[in-house]
Amino acid sequence: xxxxxxxxxxxxxxxxPFRTDDAANLxxxxxxxxYEGVEIAVEDPTLIDSEKIYKELKKNGLQxxxxxxxxxxxxxxxxxxxxxxxxxLYIEDCLNISNDLSANFFAGPMYSAVGKAxxxxxxxxxxxWNRAVDNLGKVCEMAATKGLELALEPLNRFxxxxxNNVDDVLRxxxxxxxxAAKICLDMFHMNIEEPDPGLAIxxxxxxxLHVQVSENYRGTPGTxxxxxxxxxxxxxxxxxxxxxxxxxxxxxxxxxxxAVCIWRNLAEDQDTFAREGHEFLKRWAANQxx
Length: 290
Fold this sequence. Notes:
eight-stranded parallel β-barrel, globular, single chain, IolE/XylAMocC-like
C-alpha cells in the first residue's frame, strides 16, 4: 500500500543561513529532483523576503514547511528574561513567515536552546520545565490567532536535557493543554532515544504534524540502519498524510556543522544526497523496498 505522504527536503542540506537570494536556484533544483516540499530553515528572519520566496515556491510547485533554529540567544527556559523575550519575538517572526508562505504550522525544538544538555538539580529542571510550559503557552496563543499549529520536536540527550522522546513531548503537550500544540518527530533523534520507533509514532498518533528523516548517522536515507520498515508500518497505522522531509546538514558551514557535530561529508556531494535520498524515499513510501 502506498503511504500517502509528500516528500520534502531541508534547505540545511545545502546552505546556512538560508537567504532570499538562495530561493530561485535551490527551489528549482529541489523540484527537479522530484520533491514536493521544501523545509525552509529560518535562522535569521531578516534574511527572509516572504513575498519573493513565495513566488519561487509557486513557480516550482513546492509546498513550504517552516522550521526554526534555536540557539542560546533564543532560550525560553533561560534565567535571563531578555533571552526568553528574544525567543518569543523570534518565534513570532517565524509564525508570520509561516503564514506568508502558506505553511500550516511552525516546527522545531522551540521549548529550549539546542545544545543545552547539562546535569542540573531537580529543582532547576522543574523551574526550566515550568518556564517552557509558560512561554509555549504564549506561543500557542500566538499561533492560534494566525490559524497555525506548532510541531514540537524532541531532541536526543546530547542536544537537549528537556524533551528527548515522544513521552516527554506528550507530557509537554498535556500540560500546555492547547489545540495548537502538536508534534514533529525526527528519525535521527528517535534512533537514539526510542527503543521502539514504531511505537513512538503510534503514541504520537493524530498529534503528529511533521516527520523528518535521515539515517542513524545523519546520512542519506537507505544507507544506514534506521528502522524504515517500522516507520512505514506505524505511519500507515496512524493514517499519516503529512510530509516526510529529509533533514541533514552540509559541513561546509562551520558554525552549523559544529552545532550538530558533523565534521565530514556524509555523501559524495549534497546534490547526490538529495537525489539518492529521494529515490529511496519514493520506493519506501510505495512499500517497494527489498
